[in-house]
C-alpha cells in the first residue's frame, strides 16, 4: 500500500493537466519567445502566423526579445483578448540652469496599415517643468495636434495632496487620447523663464528635464522622483489588435476561407477600436478560437466557485450536470 500510493499520484497528475490544455499556437509551432507567450494568429516562424501577424523573436538577446515584424517595436506581452504592449521611449528634453537646451531624445510610433491601433487604455503624460510650465502634446501623421496638457511645478511639491501616484497638473499632467490612432509623435513647448523669477501668479520651482510619453495609464504612477530624473526611460504602450482585413463579423463570415474564427464553439465580436473583429471561445469553452478545434470544453466540476455544485457533479460537453447524491433530494446547485 505504501509503495502504491506515490505511483497512483504520478499516474493521475498528467490526466488532470491534459484536461485543461488547449492549443496556443498552430501544431508544430513554438509559442514562447523568452517568457512571452505568443498565441496564434501571432507567430514568429514561417507558416506559424496569419498574414500581418508575423513577429520576430530575436534570440541573440538573453532572454530573447520579441518584435513586431516590419515595424521593430518590442512586444512585452500579448493578450488573446485583443491587447498587447510595446515598449517605447519617452521623449526627453533637458536644459541647463540658464535655459539652454543640453540634450534630449525624440521618438514616435507609426503603425501604418497594420492590425495595430493605439489603445484607449493609454494616456499622454507630460512630466517636469524646465521653464515653470511645460505643455506636452502629440501630433498625428499629418502633423496636426491630437491631445495634450500642461504640467507646472510649485515651490514645494509635497505641500499639495493628491500628487502622489496621480497626475493632477502639478509636476505631471495626463490627457486621454481618441480612438482609431495608428500614429503618435510627442512634442513639448515651454512657457515662462528658467531663471530666477518673481512671477506673482506662478512662483515655482523648475526641473532640469521634461518628459512627454504615451503609456498604459494602469502602469504609470507618478511620484516626485520623476522630477529629479535626467535619464531616458521606456514606457509600455497598450496596443489594440484585431483582424482588420474586413470590417466586422457579419462581413467576415461571408468568406469562410478567410474567416479567422476557426474553432467550433467560438463567438465573434466586432472591434471596439477601429474596423475589424476578434474571436473568443463561447461560454463554457476555453482555448484559442483562432485554431481549428482550439476551443476546449471547460470541466465545470473543477471550478466550483464559478459553477457551484453541492451534489454529484458530472462534466458534459458544453455544460455540466449537478445531481443530488443517491438517496437524497433537493437542489444541489
Ligand atoms: C518576463 O521576464 C521579465 C524579466 O526577465 C519580467 O520582468 C517579466 O515580468 C516576465 N514576464 C512574464 C510574463 O513572466
Ligand atoms: C537580433 O538583434 C541583433 C542585435 O540588435 C541584430 O544585429 C540582429 O540582426 C537581430 N536579428 C534578427 C533576426 O532580427
Ligand atoms: C540640474 O542641472 C544643474 C546644472 O544645470 C545641476 O547642478 C543639477 O545637479 C541638476 N539636477 C539634477 C537632478 O540632475
Ligand atoms: C546653457 O546652454 C547654453 C547653450 O545651450 C549656453 O550658451 C549657456 O552658457 C549655458 N549656461 C550655463 C549656465 O551653462
Ligand atoms: C526647489 O526645489 C528644491 C529641491 O526640492 C528645494 O530645495 C528648493 O527650496 C525649491 N525652491 C523653491 C523656490 O521652492
Ligand atoms: C507616496 O506613495 C508611496 C507609495 O504608495 C509612499 O511610500 C510614500 O510615502 C508616499 N509619499 C507621500 C509624500 O505621500
Ligand atoms: C517612484 O518611482 C520610481 C520610478 O518608477 C520608483 O523607482 C520609486 O520606487 C518610486 N518611489 C516611491 C516612493 O513610490
Ligand atoms: C461590415 O464591414 C463591411 C466592409 O468590410 C461594411 O461594408 C459594412 O457596412 C459593415 N457592416 C456593419 C454593420 O458595420
Ligand atoms: C476569401 O478569402 C480568401 C483567402 O483570403 C481569398 O483568397 C478569396 O479571394 C476570398 N474570396 C472572396 C469571394 O472574397
Ligand atoms: C467574448 O468577448 C466579448 C467582448 O470582449 C465579451 O463581452 C464576452 O463576455 C466574451 N465571451 C466569453 C465567453 O468570454
Ligand atoms: C446546462 O445544464 C443546466 C442543468 O444542469 C441547464 O439548466 C442549462 O439549460 C444547460 N445549459 C445549456 C447551455 O445547455
Question: What is the 3D shape?
Answer: elongated
What is the count of helical runs?
2
- The low-confidence parts are 1-20
Rg estimate, integer Å: 26 Å
Spell out which ligands are present. 2-acetamido-2-deoxy-beta-D-glucopyranose
User: What is the average per-residue confidence, as pLDDT, rounded to a whole number?
Assistant: 86
Approximately how much helix is present in the residues? under 10%
Q: Give the neighbour order of strands across the main sheet.
A: 3-4-5-6-17-10
**Strand residue content:** 35-45%
Kindly name the structural category: mainly beta
How many structural domains in the coordinates? 3
Query: Strand tally, please?
Result: 23
Report the end-to-end length measured between terminal Cα atoms: 36 Å
**What's the order of the H and E elements?**
HEEEEEEEEEEEEEEEEEHEEEEEE
Largest sheet: 6 strands, antiparallel
Pfam families: GUB_WAK_bind (PF13947)
GO molecular function, one term: polysaccharide binding
GO cellular component, one term: membrane
Domain EGF-like calcium-binding: 297-333
